[in-house]
Amino acid sequence: MPEPDARFMALALSLGRRGMGRCAPNPAVGCVITRAGRIVGRGVTGAGGRPHAETIALAQAGKAARGATAYVTLEPCAHHGVTPPCTGALIAAGVARVVAPFDDTDPRVAGQGFAALRAAGIEVTTGVLADAAARDHAGFLLRNAEGRPRVTLKLAASFDGRIATASGHSRWITGAQARRAVHAMRARHDAVMVGAGTARADDPVLTVRGMGARYQPVRVVVSRRLDLPLTSRMAQSAGEVPLWLCHGDGIEPALAAAWQGLGARLLPCAVVAGQVEPGTVLRALGAAGLTRVLCEGGGALAASLIGAGLVDELVGFTAGLAIGAEGLPGLGALGLSRLDEAPRFDLVETRPLGGDVMHRWVRAG
Protein backbone atom coordinates (compact mmCIF):
# COMPACT_ATOMS: atom_id res chain seq x y z
CA MET A 1 0.00 0.00 0.00
CA PRO A 2 1.23 3.58 -0.55
CA GLU A 3 3.17 4.86 2.46
CA PRO A 4 0.96 7.96 2.96
CA ASP A 5 -2.15 5.77 3.12
CA ALA A 6 -0.66 3.69 5.95
CA ARG A 7 0.60 6.78 7.77
CA PHE A 8 -2.67 8.68 7.67
CA MET A 9 -4.70 5.58 8.52
CA ALA A 10 -2.45 4.96 11.54
CA LEU A 11 -3.21 8.51 12.65
CA ALA A 12 -6.94 7.95 12.15
CA LEU A 13 -6.75 4.77 14.24
CA SER A 14 -4.94 6.60 17.03
CA LEU A 15 -7.67 9.23 17.01
CA GLY A 16 -10.35 6.54 17.15
CA ARG A 17 -8.78 5.00 20.25
CA ARG A 18 -9.45 8.24 22.10
CA GLY A 19 -13.14 7.46 21.82
CA MET A 20 -12.94 3.96 23.31
CA GLY A 21 -15.19 3.60 26.31
CA ARG A 22 -17.52 6.48 25.48
CA CYS A 23 -19.10 5.70 22.09
CA ALA A 24 -21.23 2.59 22.72
CA PRO A 25 -23.21 1.27 20.98
CA ASN A 26 -21.38 2.95 18.10
CA PRO A 27 -17.79 2.12 17.18
CA ALA A 28 -14.99 4.48 18.15
CA VAL A 29 -14.10 5.73 14.68
CA GLY A 30 -11.30 8.11 13.71
CA CYS A 31 -11.20 10.21 10.55
CA VAL A 32 -8.39 12.22 8.94
CA ILE A 33 -8.94 14.36 5.84
CA THR A 34 -5.95 15.32 3.73
CA ARG A 35 -5.46 17.50 0.68
CA ALA A 36 -2.20 17.52 -1.25
CA GLY A 37 -0.59 15.58 1.59
CA ARG A 38 -1.63 18.11 4.25
CA ILE A 39 -4.10 17.36 7.04
CA VAL A 40 -7.10 19.69 6.79
CA GLY A 41 -9.51 17.94 9.15
CA ARG A 42 -9.65 15.29 11.83
CA GLY A 43 -12.33 13.84 14.05
CA VAL A 44 -13.28 11.08 16.46
CA THR A 45 -16.74 9.76 17.33
CA GLY A 46 -18.31 11.90 20.02
CA ALA A 47 -19.47 10.82 23.48
CA GLY A 48 -22.52 8.61 23.27
CA GLY A 49 -21.74 7.80 19.63
CA ARG A 50 -22.48 11.19 18.06
CA PRO A 51 -21.48 13.20 16.18
CA HIS A 52 -19.67 10.77 13.92
CA ALA A 53 -15.98 11.20 13.22
CA GLU A 54 -16.52 12.04 9.53
CA THR A 55 -18.94 14.84 10.39
CA ILE A 56 -16.46 16.42 12.80
CA ALA A 57 -13.54 16.13 10.37
CA LEU A 58 -15.57 17.56 7.46
CA ALA A 59 -16.67 20.52 9.56
CA GLN A 60 -13.06 21.22 10.46
CA ALA A 61 -11.93 20.90 6.85
CA GLY A 62 -14.66 23.15 5.44
CA LYS A 63 -14.15 24.00 1.78
CA ALA A 64 -10.76 22.27 1.83
CA ALA A 65 -12.59 18.93 1.80
CA ARG A 66 -13.41 19.32 -1.90
CA GLY A 67 -11.04 17.07 -3.85
CA ALA A 68 -9.54 15.71 -0.61
CA THR A 69 -8.93 12.18 0.69
CA ALA A 70 -10.77 10.96 3.78
CA TYR A 71 -9.13 8.24 5.89
CA VAL A 72 -11.82 6.54 7.99
CA THR A 73 -11.24 3.58 10.31
CA LEU A 74 -14.53 1.91 9.35
CA GLU A 75 -16.86 2.04 6.35
CA PRO A 76 -18.89 5.28 6.53
CA CYS A 77 -22.51 4.72 7.55
CA ALA A 78 -25.17 4.69 4.84
CA HIS A 79 -28.38 4.62 6.86
CA HIS A 80 -30.56 7.34 8.35
CA GLY A 81 -30.55 7.08 12.13
CA VAL A 82 -30.50 9.88 14.67
CA THR A 83 -28.19 11.70 12.26
CA PRO A 84 -27.96 11.63 8.43
CA PRO A 85 -25.54 9.14 6.86
CA CYS A 86 -21.87 10.03 6.67
CA THR A 87 -21.73 8.86 3.05
CA GLY A 88 -24.07 11.70 2.13
CA ALA A 89 -21.91 14.19 4.01
CA LEU A 90 -18.75 13.00 2.24
CA ILE A 91 -20.45 13.19 -1.14
CA ALA A 92 -21.87 16.65 -0.46
CA ALA A 93 -18.45 17.90 0.66
CA GLY A 94 -16.91 16.86 -2.66
CA VAL A 95 -14.37 14.40 -1.26
CA ALA A 96 -12.50 12.71 -4.11
CA ARG A 97 -11.28 9.58 -2.33
CA VAL A 98 -12.13 7.53 0.77
CA VAL A 99 -9.69 5.08 2.37
CA ALA A 100 -10.94 2.56 4.94
CA PRO A 101 -9.81 -0.82 6.33
CA PHE A 102 -12.93 -2.91 5.65
CA ASP A 103 -16.73 -3.06 5.44
CA ASP A 104 -18.87 -2.26 8.46
CA THR A 105 -20.50 -5.52 9.60
CA ASP A 106 -23.60 -3.70 10.85
CA PRO A 107 -26.33 -5.03 8.50
CA ARG A 108 -27.62 -1.47 8.06
CA VAL A 109 -24.33 -0.61 6.34
CA ALA A 110 -22.52 -3.79 5.19
CA GLY A 111 -20.99 -2.42 1.99
CA GLN A 112 -23.78 0.01 1.19
CA GLY A 113 -21.65 2.98 2.25
CA PHE A 114 -18.87 2.08 -0.14
CA ALA A 115 -21.41 1.41 -2.90
CA ALA A 116 -22.97 4.86 -2.45
CA LEU A 117 -19.56 6.53 -2.55
CA ARG A 118 -18.54 4.71 -5.72
CA ALA A 119 -21.89 5.51 -7.34
CA ALA A 120 -21.15 9.18 -6.69
CA GLY A 121 -17.79 8.87 -8.48
CA ILE A 122 -15.65 8.78 -5.33
CA GLU A 123 -12.63 6.48 -5.40
CA VAL A 124 -12.73 3.93 -2.56
CA THR A 125 -9.65 2.09 -1.28
CA THR A 126 -9.99 -0.66 1.32
CA GLY A 127 -7.66 -3.07 3.13
CA VAL A 128 -5.41 -0.38 4.64
CA LEU A 129 -4.23 -1.44 8.14
CA ALA A 130 -7.14 -3.86 8.33
CA ASP A 131 -5.57 -6.03 11.06
CA ALA A 132 -4.98 -3.04 13.34
CA ALA A 133 -8.49 -1.75 12.71
CA ALA A 134 -9.95 -5.18 13.47
CA ARG A 135 -8.22 -5.15 16.85
CA ASP A 136 -9.49 -1.66 17.65
CA HIS A 137 -13.07 -2.47 16.58
CA ALA A 138 -13.08 -6.00 18.03
CA GLY A 139 -15.84 -5.25 20.54
CA PHE A 140 -18.11 -3.62 17.96
CA LEU A 141 -17.52 -6.43 15.47
CA LEU A 142 -18.10 -9.12 18.12
CA ARG A 143 -21.38 -7.54 19.19
CA ASN A 144 -22.51 -7.53 15.55
CA ALA A 145 -21.47 -11.16 15.06
CA GLU A 146 -22.41 -12.79 18.38
CA GLY A 147 -24.55 -10.26 20.20
CA ARG A 148 -22.09 -9.86 23.08
CA PRO A 149 -19.35 -7.40 24.04
CA ARG A 150 -15.66 -8.19 24.03
CA VAL A 151 -14.48 -9.17 27.51
CA THR A 152 -11.16 -8.29 29.11
CA LEU A 153 -10.45 -10.00 32.42
CA LYS A 154 -8.11 -8.12 34.75
CA LEU A 155 -6.41 -9.88 37.65
CA ALA A 156 -4.01 -8.26 40.12
CA ALA A 157 -2.25 -10.95 42.12
CA SER A 158 0.79 -11.84 44.15
CA PHE A 159 3.63 -13.82 42.61
CA ASP A 160 1.91 -17.02 43.78
CA GLY A 161 -1.45 -16.05 42.26
CA ARG A 162 -3.28 -14.86 45.36
CA ILE A 163 -5.54 -11.80 45.43
CA ALA A 164 -5.90 -11.42 49.21
CA THR A 165 -4.82 -12.92 52.51
CA ALA A 166 -6.96 -15.54 54.22
CA SER A 167 -8.67 -12.75 56.16
CA GLY A 168 -9.57 -10.99 52.91
CA HIS A 169 -7.05 -8.15 53.20
CA SER A 170 -6.04 -7.06 49.69
CA ARG A 171 -5.10 -3.35 49.69
CA TRP A 172 -2.77 -2.97 48.07
CA ILE A 173 -1.16 -5.96 46.36
CA THR A 174 0.10 -3.90 43.43
CA GLY A 175 1.62 -0.45 43.42
CA ALA A 176 0.44 2.99 42.34
CA GLN A 177 1.56 2.67 38.71
CA ALA A 178 -0.35 -0.57 38.22
CA ARG A 179 -3.46 0.90 39.83
CA ARG A 180 -3.24 3.93 37.56
CA ALA A 181 -2.99 1.59 34.55
CA VAL A 182 -6.20 -0.11 35.71
CA HIS A 183 -8.00 3.24 35.79
CA ALA A 184 -6.80 3.88 32.23
CA MET A 185 -8.19 0.47 31.24
CA ARG A 186 -11.53 1.33 32.80
CA ALA A 187 -11.64 4.53 30.77
CA ARG A 188 -11.22 2.54 27.52
CA HIS A 189 -14.13 0.20 28.25
CA ASP A 190 -17.87 0.73 28.11
CA ALA A 191 -18.38 -1.05 31.43
CA VAL A 192 -16.56 -2.42 34.47
CA MET A 193 -18.02 -5.66 35.81
CA VAL A 194 -17.62 -7.52 39.11
CA GLY A 195 -19.37 -10.37 40.90
CA ALA A 196 -21.55 -9.99 43.97
CA GLY A 197 -18.86 -11.36 46.30
CA THR A 198 -16.38 -8.70 45.26
CA ALA A 199 -19.04 -6.00 45.53
CA ARG A 200 -19.86 -7.08 49.10
CA ALA A 201 -16.29 -7.67 50.28
CA ASP A 202 -14.56 -4.63 48.78
CA ASP A 203 -17.38 -2.07 48.49
CA PRO A 204 -15.73 -0.74 45.31
CA VAL A 205 -16.82 2.37 43.41
CA LEU A 206 -15.48 1.12 40.04
CA THR A 207 -15.15 4.61 38.60
CA VAL A 208 -12.25 6.14 36.67
CA ARG A 209 -10.26 8.36 39.00
CA GLY A 210 -7.14 10.47 38.68
CA MET A 211 -7.32 10.55 34.87
CA GLY A 212 -9.34 13.71 34.31
CA ALA A 213 -12.17 11.53 33.04
CA ARG A 214 -15.47 13.25 32.20
CA TYR A 215 -17.23 10.10 30.97
CA GLN A 216 -17.59 7.16 33.35
CA PRO A 217 -18.08 3.51 32.34
CA VAL A 218 -21.21 1.65 33.35
CA ARG A 219 -20.75 -0.33 36.59
CA VAL A 220 -22.09 -3.90 36.25
CA VAL A 221 -22.61 -6.28 39.17
CA VAL A 222 -23.61 -9.89 38.62
CA SER A 223 -25.72 -10.97 41.59
CA ARG A 224 -28.21 -13.83 41.41
CA ARG A 225 -30.32 -12.66 44.36
CA LEU A 226 -29.47 -8.94 44.41
CA ASP A 227 -28.14 -9.57 47.90
CA LEU A 228 -26.02 -6.43 47.86
CA PRO A 229 -25.95 -3.65 50.47
CA LEU A 230 -28.26 -0.80 49.57
CA THR A 231 -25.91 1.38 51.60
CA SER A 232 -22.82 0.52 49.51
CA ARG A 233 -20.89 3.20 47.69
CA MET A 234 -22.06 1.89 44.30
CA ALA A 235 -25.67 1.88 45.42
CA GLN A 236 -25.48 5.39 46.79
CA SER A 237 -23.88 6.70 43.59
CA ALA A 238 -26.24 4.88 41.19
CA GLY A 239 -28.02 8.11 40.36
CA GLU A 240 -24.75 9.73 39.28
CA VAL A 241 -22.82 6.91 37.56
CA PRO A 242 -24.76 4.14 35.74
CA LEU A 243 -25.17 0.94 37.73
CA TRP A 244 -26.57 -2.18 36.05
CA LEU A 245 -27.43 -5.30 38.05
CA CYS A 246 -27.54 -8.68 36.29
CA HIS A 247 -29.68 -11.00 38.40
CA GLY A 248 -31.67 -14.22 38.37
CA ASP A 249 -35.40 -14.74 38.71
CA GLY A 250 -37.48 -14.65 41.87
CA ILE A 251 -36.29 -11.24 43.05
CA GLU A 252 -38.55 -9.69 45.68
CA PRO A 253 -40.50 -6.83 44.05
CA ALA A 254 -39.73 -4.52 46.97
CA LEU A 255 -35.99 -5.18 46.61
CA ALA A 256 -36.11 -4.58 42.86
CA ALA A 257 -38.05 -1.36 43.44
CA ALA A 258 -35.49 -0.20 46.01
CA TRP A 259 -32.62 -0.63 43.57
CA GLN A 260 -34.53 1.05 40.77
CA GLY A 261 -35.38 3.88 43.13
CA LEU A 262 -31.67 4.45 43.64
CA GLY A 263 -31.21 4.66 39.86
CA ALA A 264 -29.94 1.15 39.09
CA ARG A 265 -30.96 -0.69 35.93
CA LEU A 266 -31.99 -4.33 36.41
CA LEU A 267 -31.15 -6.94 33.77
CA PRO A 268 -32.75 -10.36 34.35
CA CYS A 269 -30.56 -13.28 33.26
CA ALA A 270 -30.85 -17.05 33.15
CA VAL A 271 -29.65 -19.17 36.08
CA VAL A 272 -27.93 -22.50 35.44
CA ALA A 273 -26.80 -24.85 38.23
CA GLY A 274 -27.51 -22.17 40.81
CA GLN A 275 -25.37 -19.50 39.11
CA VAL A 276 -26.19 -16.64 36.78
CA GLU A 277 -25.25 -18.00 33.34
CA PRO A 278 -22.42 -15.85 31.95
CA GLY A 279 -23.49 -16.15 28.32
CA THR A 280 -26.88 -14.63 29.05
CA VAL A 281 -25.21 -11.87 31.06
CA LEU A 282 -23.06 -10.89 28.10
CA ARG A 283 -25.94 -11.13 25.64
CA ALA A 284 -27.99 -8.87 27.90
CA LEU A 285 -25.13 -6.37 28.02
CA GLY A 286 -24.73 -6.60 24.24
CA ALA A 287 -28.45 -6.01 23.71
CA ALA A 288 -28.14 -2.96 25.96
CA GLY A 289 -25.47 -1.57 23.63
CA LEU A 290 -22.16 -2.43 25.30
CA THR A 291 -19.20 -3.41 23.10
CA ARG A 292 -16.25 -3.58 25.56
CA VAL A 293 -16.44 -4.89 29.13
CA LEU A 294 -13.64 -5.01 31.70
CA CYS A 295 -14.19 -7.72 34.32
CA GLU A 296 -12.33 -7.14 37.59
CA GLY A 297 -13.41 -10.34 39.39
CA GLY A 298 -14.09 -11.93 41.69
CA GLY A 299 -12.85 -15.45 41.37
CA ALA A 300 -16.19 -17.17 40.77
CA LEU A 301 -17.30 -14.77 38.02
CA ALA A 302 -13.86 -14.86 36.39
CA ALA A 303 -13.84 -18.68 36.41
CA SER A 304 -17.34 -18.87 34.93
CA LEU A 305 -16.37 -16.54 32.08
CA ILE A 306 -13.15 -18.42 31.33
CA GLY A 307 -14.87 -21.78 31.58
CA ALA A 308 -17.52 -20.67 29.09
CA GLY A 309 -14.89 -19.43 26.62
CA LEU A 310 -16.08 -15.85 26.98
CA VAL A 311 -12.82 -14.13 27.96
CA ASP A 312 -11.17 -12.56 24.93
CA GLU A 313 -8.23 -10.94 26.67
CA LEU A 314 -6.43 -11.46 29.97
CA VAL A 315 -4.50 -8.66 31.65
CA GLY A 316 -2.50 -9.64 34.69
CA PHE A 317 -0.66 -7.43 37.17
CA THR A 318 1.80 -9.52 39.15
CA ALA A 319 3.37 -8.13 42.32
CA GLY A 320 6.67 -9.17 43.86
CA LEU A 321 5.27 -10.65 47.04
CA ALA A 322 4.05 -14.08 48.12
CA ILE A 323 0.95 -14.68 50.25
CA GLY A 324 0.90 -18.46 50.49
CA ALA A 325 -1.59 -21.27 50.05
CA GLU A 326 -3.96 -19.90 52.68
CA GLY A 327 -4.49 -16.77 50.59
CA LEU A 328 -7.49 -16.33 48.31
CA PRO A 329 -6.93 -17.49 44.71
CA GLY A 330 -7.60 -15.18 41.78
CA LEU A 331 -9.82 -17.75 40.06
CA GLY A 332 -12.54 -20.03 41.32
CA ALA A 333 -12.75 -23.71 40.45
CA LEU A 334 -12.70 -24.65 36.76
CA GLY A 335 -13.20 -28.36 37.28
CA LEU A 336 -10.27 -29.43 35.10
CA SER A 337 -8.70 -32.87 35.34
CA ARG A 338 -6.20 -32.55 32.48
CA LEU A 339 -3.96 -29.71 31.32
CA ASP A 340 -5.13 -30.07 27.74
CA GLU A 341 -8.61 -29.07 28.94
CA ALA A 342 -7.35 -25.70 30.18
CA PRO A 343 -8.23 -22.64 28.05
CA ARG A 344 -5.12 -21.29 26.34
CA PHE A 345 -4.11 -17.67 25.79
CA ASP A 346 -1.27 -16.21 23.72
CA LEU A 347 1.10 -13.63 25.24
CA VAL A 348 1.09 -10.34 23.32
CA GLU A 349 2.71 -7.90 25.72
CA THR A 350 4.68 -7.72 28.94
CA ARG A 351 6.20 -4.71 30.66
CA PRO A 352 7.22 -3.48 34.11
CA LEU A 353 5.02 -1.00 35.97
CA GLY A 354 6.87 0.32 38.96
CA GLY A 355 7.58 -2.72 41.11
CA ASP A 356 5.01 -4.88 39.31
CA VAL A 357 4.78 -6.66 35.96
CA MET A 358 1.88 -6.23 33.56
CA HIS A 359 1.26 -9.08 31.10
CA ARG A 360 -1.44 -9.15 28.44
CA TRP A 361 -2.78 -12.26 26.71
CA VAL A 362 -5.39 -12.89 24.02
CA ARG A 363 -7.46 -16.01 23.52
CA ALA A 364 -5.53 -18.53 21.45
CA GLY A 365 -6.74 -18.76 17.87
TrEMBL record:
Which PROSITE patterns does the UniProt entry name for this protein? Answer: CYT_DCMP_DEAMINASES_1, CYT_DCMP_DEAMINASES_2
According to the record, cofactor stoichiometry and binding are noted as: Binds 1 zinc ion.
Q: Which reaction does it catalyse?
A: 2,5-diamino-6-hydroxy-4-(5-phosphoribosylamino)-pyrimidine + H2O + H(+) = 5-amino-6-(5-phospho-D-ribosylamino)uracil + NH4(+); 5-amino-6-(5-phospho-D-ribitylamino)uracil + NADP(+) = 5-amino-6-(5-phospho-D-ribosylamino)uracil + NADPH + H(+)
Question: What is the protein's known function?
Answer: Converts 2,5-diamino-6-(ribosylamino)-4(3h)-pyrimidinone 5'-phosphate into 5-amino-6-(ribosylamino)-2,4(1h,3h)-pyrimidinedione 5'-phosphate.
Q: In the UniProt record, does the keyword Metal-binding occur? A: yes
Tell me the CDD domains matching this sequence.
Riboflavin_deaminase-reductase
Q: What is its EC number?
A: 3.5.4.26, 1.1.1.193
Sorted alphabetically, the keyword list is: Hydrolase, Metal-binding, Multifunctional enzyme, NADP, Oxidoreductase, Riboflavin biosynthesis, Zinc
Tell me a Gene Ontology molecular-function term this record carries: 5-amino-6-(5-phosphoribosylamino)uracil reductase activity
**Pathway given in the UniProt record:** Cofactor biosynthesis; riboflavin biosynthesis; 5-amino-6-(D-ribitylamino)uracil from GTP: step 3/4; Cofactor biosynthesis; riboflavin biosynthesis; 5-amino-6-(D-ribitylamino)uracil from GTP: step 2/4
Q: What is this protein called?
A: Riboflavin biosynthesis protein RibD
Matching InterPro entries:
APOBEC/CMP_deaminase_Zn-bd (IPR016192), CMP_dCMP_dom (IPR002125), Cytidine_deaminase-like (IPR016193), DHFR-like_dom_sf (IPR024072), Eubact_RibD (IPR004794), RibD_C (IPR011549), RibDG_C (IPR002734), Riboflavin_Biosynth_HTPR (IPR050765)
The family classification in the record reads: In the C-terminal section; belongs to the HTP reductase family. In the N-terminal section; belongs to the cytidine and deoxycytidylate deaminase family.
Entry keyword annotation includes Isomerase: no
The secretion signal range is none
